[in-house]
Amino acid sequence: MPDTLYELIAELTPENDWPKPELLTAIMARGDEIVKPLCQMLNDPECDGWSLHYAANLLALHGSREAIPALANTFRLFDTDFLESTSEALSAFGEAAIDPALDAASDAKANWYQRAMAINAAVEAAGNDAALKERVSARLRAMLEDFVARAKSLTDEEIQVASALVCDLSGMVDPAARDLIETAFAAEVVDESVTDRKDVQRAYGHAYDNLRRNFNPRKWFEDYPASYQRHLEQEAKWAKREQRQKEKQRYSVPAKPIAAPKLGRNDLCWCGSGKKYKHCHLRSDTSGK
Question: Lower CB count within 10 Å: N or C terminus of the chain?
Fold first, then answer.
């Protein structure tokens, strides 16, 4: 295993989707030293894929608030499914993550997915704390009110952001947002393929089901060795299955091609014309035309 911290972190490549548990343990053993290089990784536009996932989760596990700006910046810097990981990791910082996440969500230069992941981070950071939920809801309502006010000039990207806002406000069962959500539908700023009035009604009618279950980086780290082992076992099963398939193809007896019957010159032509072969397709067959 590499010795220096930077060598250890360099092992978190985009292609290394399942690093060995020993590598993650060795990185975490360096304590406060890991914050700066992992934040640098998150701020590197060339970083992507699983690098984002592990850097974000390890920073959340360490818990230093110095990581919050770098995590929030991923919503402006990247456009990848791994923003779900950085969103979860940022949410683990709780109240301290709310404003940075909402500031990223308000950035008009970001696309709808980036802004939606930032919104999700703020919502999850609030958890089930009533005061924090109201703090987040107030900002989300203000964003949605702005979209409604500009309904006739919204871009497709902004409509998707408005739809995400409706999803999250209804998911938080915010009573102050109920009329605003209906106004948003009436103003046609909501993409009803994303969420519709029935979805909203269902969310408000099942408040218990909407309780937040925040990402727990400690549990993720503790469970990782077992997850890693299950991954290896699954990989081995796939490899055996592929090998059996190759052996089956290798030892199977290929079917012998059935040769077309050889026609004599005076036989009826194969085309069904009723003519003798010599008067029909013999010339074209033998000339290759």
Answer: C
| 213 pLDDT more than 90 | no
Q: What is the DSSP string of 153-166?
A: G--HHHHHHHHHHH
Lowest mean pLDDT among 37-46, 85-94, 101-110, 272-281: 272-281
How far apart are the C-alpha atoms of 18 and 25, rounded to whole Å? 13
Residues 6+ apart with CB under 8 A from 201: none
Average pLDDT over residues 30-48: 94
> What does the alpha-carbon distance between residue 278 and residue 260 come to, in Å, rounded to a whole number?
17
3-class DSSP state of 142: helix
- What's the count of helices (H) and strands (E) in the chain, helices before strands? 14, 0
Q: What CA–CA distance (Å, rounded) separates 155 from 277?
A: 70
pLDDT band at residue 288, thresholds of 50, 70 and 90? very low
**How big is the chain by its Cα radius of gyration, in Å?**
30
Name residues whose C-beta falls within 8 Å of residue 55's C-beta, 6 or more positions apart in sequence.
9, 12, 38, 41, 42, 47
- As given in the structure block, the two tokens for residue 161 are 């952001």
Helices (H), 17-129: 21-28, 35-42, 50-62, 68-77, 83-91, 95-105, 112-126
State the pTM of this model. 0.81
Q: How many CB atoms lie within 10 A of CB 166?
A: 30
Q: What is the pLDDT of residues 248-286, one digit of tens each?
A: 777 766 655 555 566 666 677 777 666 665 556 766 666
